Amino acid sequence: MKFSYELEYNAFGPWHDGYVNYKRLKKLIKEQRHDLEGTGITPTHVAWQEFSEEVLSELERILSRLASWMEDLLGEAAVVADPKVHPKYRKSCAEIYLELNELCNFVRLNSEGARKLVKKFDKFHGTAHRAEFLVGCAALCEMTDMVQTEVLPMINSIQKSYAASFCGGDKATAVDELSQALSEMLVWDRGTVWHDLIRLER
C-alpha cells in the first residue's frame, strides 16, 4: 500500500486535518524537478531550502496541534486514572486508552511521512539530506520526546489502574482487555476509510 493510502487509512478520524499534508509536499518535489529541468540547470540547494522550509513549517503546525490535544487529553487521563472520582470508569478507561494510543500513532505516522518525503526529495535530486534532517529536526525530536515522557507513562498508569479495579491486579490481563476494546473501537473509525481506499485502488 502506498504511504499516502496508509496515512489516510490509519489517520484517527477526529484528528484527520492534523496529519502531514503528504500529497501536497510530494507534489512540490515533482514541481521543483519540472521547473529545474525546464531551465536547464539544477540548483539543488535552492530546491532543498524551499522544500525543507515547507516540511519544517508543516511539522511545526503538527506539533502545535499535538501539544493542544495532549494538554486536553492528559488532563482527562489523569482523572480517569482514579476510579473513585470518575463515573462510568471502565468505559472511560477504554476511550482514553484509545486516544492515548492514537497520539502515539499520530507521531509515528507524521514522523514516517517526513522521513519518506525527504527520502523522495533525495531520490529526485541525487542528494543525501535525510539523515541530517531527521536528526536535526526539532519538531520531530520534540514530538518523540512528548510520547516517551508523557503519553507512554500515562498509558502505563491507565493499565495499572484498570488492572487494580477489574483484573485483580493482573496487568497482562488488563492490557489484553484494553487492547481488545481498542480494536473494537477502531473498527468503525477505520472501516469506512478502508472501503474508500479499495475503491480508489480500483
At a glance:
With 202 residues, the protein is mostly helical. 83% of the residues lie in helices and 0% in strands. The protein has seven helices and no strands.
Can you walk me through this structure?
By secondary structure, the protein is mostly helical. The protein has one domain. The protein is built from seven helices and no strands. The protein has helices at 3-10, 22-39, 44-80, 89-125, 130-136, 138-166, 171-201. Helix 1 crosses helix 7 and helix 2 packs parallel to helix 4. The longest helix has 37 residues, at 44-80.
Nearest-integer average pLDDT: 85
**Computed CA radius of gyration, to the nearest angstrom:** 20 Å
Span between termini: 13 Å
Number of domains: 1
Instruction: Give the % helix.
Output: over 70%
Q: What share of residues are in beta strands?
A: under 5%
Q: Please give the count of helices.
A: 7
- Going by helix content, strand content and strand pairing, the class is mainly alpha
Low-confidence stretches: 197-202
Largest sheet features: none
Sum up the overall morphology in one term. elongated
Pfam families: SPX
Main location: membrane
Domain SPX: 1-135
Protein name: SPX domain-containing protein
Considering the chains and any ligands shown, give keywords for the structure.
elongated; mainly alpha; disordered C terminus; 202 residues
